[in-house]
Hints:
Number of strands: 6
CATH topology of the largest domain: Rossmann fold
Distance between the termini: 29 Å
CATH superfamily of the largest domain: P-loop containing nucleotide triphosphate hydrolases
Number of helices: 12
Radius of gyration: 20 Å
Number of domains: 2
Strand content: 5-15%
Structural class: alpha/beta
Order of helices and strands: EHEEHEHHHHHEHHHHEH
Amino acid sequence: MSHDGETLGERVVVLVGPTASGKTALSIALARRLDGEIVNTDSVLTYRDMNIGSAKPTLEERLGVPHHLVDVWGVEHDATVAEFQGLARAAIADIQARGKTPILVGGSALYVRAVIDPLDFPGTDPRVRAKWQARGEEIGPEALHAELAVLDPVAAAQILPTNARRVVRALEVIEMTGEPFKASLPAYESIYPDLVMLGLEVDRAVLDARIVQRVEDMWAARFVDEVRHLHGLAGSPTASRAIGYQQVLAFLAGVLSEAEAKEETVAGTRRLARRQERMLHKDPRITWFAHDDDDLLDKALKATRRYRDTVG
């Protein structure tokens, strides 16, 4: 692949922003100018055949830029952040070993930070997890959260009672390790010394309109048919919870009407975007740009060069 740009050596570039903010187009433009390769940090894009609902860039849209951690697993795979962390760091090392610039792209603060910051994830014990899952089904999520509050009030204060999966995970870790569950993330200190983080900001009304349009485009692209033909999705512990896929599965199961599924996909995506914005704006390392800035690419490139100058 030919490039008209420069190589940044050991630099790691991160591009973040809420869903539907335009990260894909900017990341590909940056990669072409910085002799870069993209490392996806969006969990849904890791699943094969989940294309329309994840807004996965097509091969044509990628313009020859290599993408890592896209189409890694089948939908039945129960992916974990720890597993993703190992794959992403290996991809970064591989890209750097070939003299290219890794460009991480995604909207999830947890997945991005799992890759670039010193986050440690305890292993899992299926037996212990199954025990707490069964307990939650027996007494309900609120009561299970109350049990967590007795064992680890700090963790309970940071986990919503409705987030049953995370409550179960906290109880599993506490039982396995005999120590409190680390529900909060560590300080913003990267394992990569030469790191530049860029973020895309979108006015809320504009972002809401873009989300509505994205969902309309998904349906026009026959998203329902994609979900209908994804064998094994309904039984998947993780892929089936992805926004859009979860709602269409409910429609296909007769729980929602198709109109309700579409409305709930819009609402769920808006909530996701709000949560992404809230979490990402806590990171002081990110330089933010307006998504519709006429000079967006040039300003983003200048930010990487300016950072390179400051680190010597």
